[in-house]
Task: inverse folding
């Protein structure tokens, strides 16, 4: 079975440009998470969707960040305009359930470098 | 929020058992204990989870103290492929939140 698929794997862009990261969760999973990982702050939850509906976006840093989940098989995380401090690895994860025992399946991540 | 405390790093020899400790003294009665690991340049990977009883799966064993204030992840026979950062996480009542700490970097020596 295919796991969580993220694209692009690597993105290098210049400050001020728009960046769009994409995620295809595992089929049948109803929970989707976007995380950001940096050396300084570790793994941080940015936003959580359940059944395609954003439930918690309190981790989204600021208005420059937005996330959508138009259907059960696709989600995007957009940064506009991008800044150097957005450089990080962005992970998408999906889960069959949001309950305490639900296992999260992570993609391989999108490494973003903003120059 | 209940937090976990793990050593920053540990070393072990290949083909020997590894015991990775985790302290969670403020755990609540309904918090599950989850372990994930992250291999270099990859996303985190689920390892095991438990509530009160010890748990075994094909990857590892989880030993949970009787008072639930600590737990130990056991890799029975470490290989070089087990070199990773191991995260001990409590899953909160709010269900979806995983509070990630710094984890333990496991170094396996050939």
Result:
């Amino acid at each position: 079975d295919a796991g969580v698929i993220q694209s692009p794997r690597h993105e290098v862009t210049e400050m001020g440009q728009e960046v769009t990261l994409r995620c295809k969760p595992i089929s049948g999973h109803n929970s989707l998470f976007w995380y950001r990982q940096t050396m300084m702050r570790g793994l941080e939850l940015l936003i959580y969707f359940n059944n395609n509906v954003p439930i918690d976006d309190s981790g989204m840093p600021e208005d420059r960040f937005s996330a959508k989940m138009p259907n059960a098989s696709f989600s995007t995380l957009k940064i506009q305009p991008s800044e150097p401090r957005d450089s990080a690895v962005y992970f998408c994860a999906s889960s069959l359930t949001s309950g305490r025992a639900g296992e999260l399946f992570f993609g391989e991540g999108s490494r973003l470098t903003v120059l | 929020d209940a937090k976990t405390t793990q050593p920053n790093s540990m070393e072990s020899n290949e083909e020997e058992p590894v015991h990775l400790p985790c302290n969670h003294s403020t755990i609540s009665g309904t918090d599950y204990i989850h372990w994930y690991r992250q291999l270099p340049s990859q996303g985190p990977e689920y390892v095991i989870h438990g509530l009160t009883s010890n748990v075994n799966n094909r990857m590892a064993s989880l030993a949970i103290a009787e008072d639930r204030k600590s737990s130990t992840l056991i890799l029975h026979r470490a290989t070089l492929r087990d070199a990773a950062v191991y995260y001990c996480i409590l899953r909160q009542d709010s269900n979806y939140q995983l509070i990630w700490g710094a984890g333990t970097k496991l170094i396996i020596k050939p």
The CA atoms of residues 16 and 81 of chain A lie 4 Å apart. Chain A has a mean pLDDT of 94. The two ends of chain A are 36 Å apart (CA to CA). Chain A touches chain B through 26 residues (CB under 8 Å).
